[in-house]
Write a structure and sequence with these properties.
Blueprint: H1 3-15, H2 18-25, H3 29-43, E1 48-50, E2 55-57, H4 59-86, E3 91-97, H5 102-116, E4 120-126, H6 129-137, E5 143-146, E6 155-170, H7 183-187, E7 193-194, H8 199-208, E8 223-224, H9 227-235, E9 241-244, E10 258-262, E11 269-277, H10 283-296, E12 302-303, H11 306-309
Parallel strand pairs: 3-4, 3-5, 7-8
Antiparallel strand pairs: 1-2, 5-11, 6-9, 6-10, 6-11, 6-12
Helix pairs in contact: 1-2, 1-4, 2-3, 5-10
Length: about 300
């Protein structure tokens, strides 16, 4: 039994005709019929029931064909894998991203990436930082867009950009009449934070240099599962929060009752990187993705020069 035999029986099953099946497989009908007869003799079962007017698949033939199709799918997968190795910009690239990056960065790069590299198929997943790191280590994804430094010996990173934080507060907030917002101002206000597990909450606390805020204060128990929900709470007057710069392009910025302010603090930013396994073979695909991101970033973030020179 060989793969060609499987191609022959699949073609006959789909066309219900030996002549048309032979044409599809680019062989003569006697060759195809002879190979199938030989296969049936080898297996000791009839795959097809032949009459002068029709060809029908036998019950055991249906079972054999189900396995034959699975084997042909696996053969195609092996061929695609080999082609992807020859051309690192072809085939699937499994990319994860944290929820405070994905909705704002992906729309900027998906169309340009598809236009420039049509053979590259980006498969996206959106999850928390810890989950993405675990999936990277378990080879379930190929790379991840993270905003947290990763200290794992088997992982490497391409720094992409520094993303400043902006302050978002309701119109009737005490900050409304202040020309500049200082770190002391942030220290003396209750910030709304994302739920535990989001790196943005920890980053916001680090910007304010407040390590214990998450455990105390009136807003300690008021946590949101997503940045969009957090901003709705701000718009409803529940308090203020810090927003990463890419999210400033969201629809919430108009007609939401939220005032946004740029922070004049030199260290009020987070670094976004493309993290991947050191053993991942398709480095060129990752650097290509990084370059497209670099080219499409808005001026609200600071691209890192390292992206432009790697390739």
């Amino acid at each position: 039994m060989n793969l060609r035999d499987l191609q022959y029986i699949i073609a006959v099953a789909e066309t219900r005709h030996f002549g048309r099946a032979a044409e599809r497989c680019f062989v003569s009908q006697p060759t195809l019929s002879g190979q199938i007869k030989k296969l049936e003799e080898q297996l000791g079962v009839a795959i097809f029931e032949r009459t002068n007017r029709s060809v029908e698949v036998t019950p055991i033939g249906e079972d054999i064909l189900r396995h034959a199709r699975l084997m042909m799918e696996q053969m195609n997968a092996i061929e695609q894998l080999a082609r992807a190795h020859q051309d690192p910009l072809a085939g699937p690239l499994r990319l994860g991203a944290i929820p405070t990056i994905s909705p704002y960065l992906m729309p900027l790069i998906l169309v340009p990436l598809k236009q420039q590299f049509p053979q590259l198929k980006l498969i996206l997943s959106e999850e928390m930082t810890d989950t993405l790191i675990r999936r990277l280590q378990q080879h379930e994804i190929d790379a991840a867009l993270l905003a947290t430094p990763v200290d794992e010996p088997e992982l490497e990173a391409i720094p992409l950009f520094d993303e400043p934080f902006w302050l978002a507060h309701p119109r009737d907030h005490a900050f409304y009449n202040k020309e500049t917002i200082t770190r002391e101002d942030l220290e003396n206000t209750e910030l709304l934070l994302l739920a535990e597990g989001h790196c943005l909450a920890r980053q916001a606390m680090e910007v304010c240099r407040l390590k214990e805020r998450s455990e105390r204060g009136e807003m300690a128990d008021l946590r949101a599962a997503s940045l969009e929900t957090l901003l709705q709470l701000v718009g409803a007057g529940f308090g203020s929060t810090l927003v990463p710069a890419l999210a400033m392009r969201g629809s919430w910025t108009t007609g939401s009752g939220i005032v946004t302010r740029e922070l004049d603090l030199p260290d009020a930013y987070r670094r976004v990187s493309l993290v991947y396994r050191a053993s991942f073979p398709r480095r060129e695909a990752l650097h290509t993705l990084a370059r497209v991101i670099f080219e499409k970033l808005p001026n609200t973030v600071t691209p890192l020069d390292a992206v432009g020179v790697k390739g």
